[in-house]
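input
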Amino acid sequence: MALIDQLIDTAGHWVAGSDPKAPITRPAAWLRKTSGYAAINRIIASAIPFTRRNGFRVEELRPGYVRARITLKGNRNHFGSLYAGAYFLVAEIPGGVLTLFDLGPAYVPILKEMTLSFRQPANSDVTVEFELSREQIERLQAEADRDGKTAFTLEGVMRDDSGEEVATSIAHYRVRKKGLR
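output
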């Protein structure tokens, strides 16, 4: 197993065993949480350096669930709100994160198509959440193991810091199993 595959596997298990709401008043739990997310975001940034430059980060990750954020800082458009490309980034990367951490590094996610619908300008950071059920994950893995590939769709709602819906996304992914044709 390659080093990056081991890092993905270890970071995923580390974060899955942490409390995403651990406060600093519980130092051991807080350290486990913060160090785990720092590792995950570094892995993502090493694979896709564009994410670090644009302030993308995973804030919560557990089996079948991811919440991610993109910062307004550095991503403003010509009238001061969040640039359209930043919406795309925060809506697209989590599908790969779910694939890698739920299926494992032997599966490669590929975005096939994405649609964004803008509701209102975001004048703050934006977050998005995605979920896959245990049954969906098991189906994806079984199909990829059997056929060498599978597909899934993620629908997301992007919200500003006040909780207002600012955009929606529909992303269609294909997953390929490494080593199968």
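quick obs: The longest helix spans residues 27-47.
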